[in-house]
Records
---
Amino acid sequence: MRCLICKQGETRPGNVTVTLHRDETVVIIKAVPADVCENCGEYYLSQEVTSQVLKMAEDACRKGVEVEIMRFAA
């Protein structure tokens, strides 16, 4: 797929680190599977992966953590 941001690069399968912020909570999820632009590094998550990432972040917020760093588990 051609990158929607830079419009120059093609995306390739890879892994990224996703950082999410909500109020006073920061959630960092490592090794998230994504399609990554070979030119600018922009990444695109599938719907399934996005759902899992958001659930992981929501769980961290519910626990009341300030900073949570975790590895993505498929």
Note: The first helix runs from residue 47 to 63.
---
Amino acid sequence: MQIHFVTGRLAEHSLRQMLARLAATVGFEATVQVMPITVAALMPTSWIARRLEVPPGTERVIIPGGCRGPLDVFTVPAGVTVDRGPEDLRCLDEFFGQKRRDLEGYGRHDIEIIAEINHAPRLAAASLLAESRRLTAAGADRIDVGCDPGSSWPGVGDAVRMLVAEGLRVSIDSFEPREVEAAVRAGASLVLSVNSSNVEAAADWGCEVVAIPDVPDTLAGLEATLERLAADGVAHRIDPILEPIGFGFAASLGRYLDIRRRFPAAEIMMGIGNLTELTDVDSAGINTLLIGFCQETGIRSVLTTEVIHWARSSVRECSLARDLAWHAVTHRTLPKHVEPRLVTLRAGKPQVHGPEVLDHLAAAIRDPNFRIFAERGMIHLVGAGLHLESRDPFALFDELQAAGRTDVDSSHAFYLGYEMAKAVTALTLDKDYRQDQPLDWGHLTQPEIGHGPSRAAARVAAAAGSQEVSPA
């Protein structure tokens, strides 16, 4: 395949270096068109379209990912496609590597996520509804209404009825018979939980239940409960109970394996919140491991909650993890380089320009603005004929002043300070830093706060017909 790449003056050197290696590895021939502009990301697509020259034999044109505007403005020969590449050319490896056939159809899953709202009786109706909507948007398939032990909630029927009217599937978590009866009459379709203390009432509820042992350590009482449910024709799933670390965690995993062996066709549920809520660690890794365990053992439903602050994104994590686990188990492939959104703290593999490229940029820059990079343990401040580096942003400002740059006003200084703070965070966590772009926090990434790019875009619009546009 012949691919035509479009770039600006500053990125030309780096792009050609990248393509010299990448073209042979991936298998394409590359041509490069350097537009009369300093920073490629500032080019609107309409501006590119007026200047684009597609060489004969080209099958694909790739413009910088940061270029804004529609792609239908391009007039290209038949059979030629125009695509946006990555916003950072250093990500071209990943850009081409992710075009993998084994990821076609990615996103399938067969594990149900039940999101429990703890202490639901203490919430106003509007708050309960809002939280249910939030959890559903995060990936929950069912909302579990968690009741307070030792009391009876008179409003449980109204609460469940409200959620069912919203189109939500609802379960009720209570051992109080009056709460359960009111909830199932209002539309709850699953009851958590049933053991020897309330199994006799399960036949009257007319819905599926979760069977648990009377004594989790020994599974005592579970078999009798299952026999009674089967005799009464009550649909059920089994939860042997996951225990926290230090209280029988390893043994409890073994009990799930034992239940699967003894009841190969049974539906099983795992309450993974028992580990995420009770372990001092970010929840994404725990959720992913437990979802993987469930996928391999045929556990088709998990119960989680988002009470403790480090587990406040558990539903979203489980939603992403079930897609990853299904893909890995079904295709017998490693769950690696597939779901970057689950990597939050260490997300964004650092891409390194190297000293040669940064020095080349310093020599090529003509405008008074600065480019900031974070690599090799240092913050790099690059401007016209200037390349300063330090781990300490305050030291960089001192060096900048010593270099005779007196044109940095308060607004510019604030912007540089903001970007350097991001750069320090990136160095601390070994993340990739890209000026004017948000740090990569996986699925927790938030859009960047607008500052420099908005001013730069205004200059692009004002200079749409000019030969030179400076960056932010």
Note: The radius of gyration is 29 Å.
---
Amino acid sequence: MITGPATKITNLGALKIVMGMKRFFLYLAFVMIFSLVTGLIVNLII
């Protein structure tokens, strides 16, 4: 649910144009790491 809107192809295309390549890859890395950590925390709680 977290990565769905963050990784839609149309959104990524627009972000790549606006942010530039370096910040775009930082954005992708942040989304992946945040999603992984959030998933692990939710699994520990439930």
Note: The chain has three helices and no strands.
